[in-house]
Amino acid sequence: MNNIKNGDKTTNISCRIEKLIYTKLSQEAINKGISVNSLVSSIFRHHITWQKFSDELGLVPMTKPLLKIIFEQLDEKTIKLIAQEFGGVVPKGLLYLSGNSMNFENMMEALEINAKRFGLVKHTTQDGVHDFNIHHGISRNFSQFLGVVHQKLAEDLSYKLEICNLDKNMLCMQFSEAKLNS
To answer: Which of these, 177, 125, 167, 120, lies nearest to 146 by C-alpha position?
Structure first.
C-alpha cells in the first residue's frame, strides 16, 4: 500500500491487449470523462490494493440491496456480536498481506481501501486526526455495524475513535493516534 497515492512518480509501460477490451475501456473512459490512461491506472490500483487480497481474505461480492435486507433483520445485540467478532479482520488482513508494517498511517490507508467497497469515502487528515465519511446508503443498522467494527479496531490498536454521525446512509468518524486513557 505504500506509494499508491496520486502525485507519486509514474512510469510508461507498453502492453498488448485484445482490441475488443481496448474498445470497451475507451468507451468507459469517454463515459466517465477521463482518459484511458486514468481508467487503466485506477484498475491497476484497485487490483494491487484490494482485488489481489480479496480471495485470501475470504470475501464474497454481495449487493447493497441484499445487505440492506440482512441488516434490517438484525437486532442491536447481534450487530454488535458480529462486528466485534469479525470487525477488524479485513483491514488488518489487508495490512498483513500487503507486507506493510502495522503502524497508524498504514492502518488509516487500509481503512480507506476497505471502506471503499461500501460506497463513497471521503478521507481527510488534519493535525494527525483522520476524518472518514463513508456514504454506503444501506441502512442505519449497517452504519451501527460499521461503527462497532471501527470502535473494536480502535480499542484493539489503542487508537482514539469518535463517531461524529451515524444514520441510514452514512457513518462519519475521526481516528487519532492518541492513546486511550491519555
So the answer is: 167
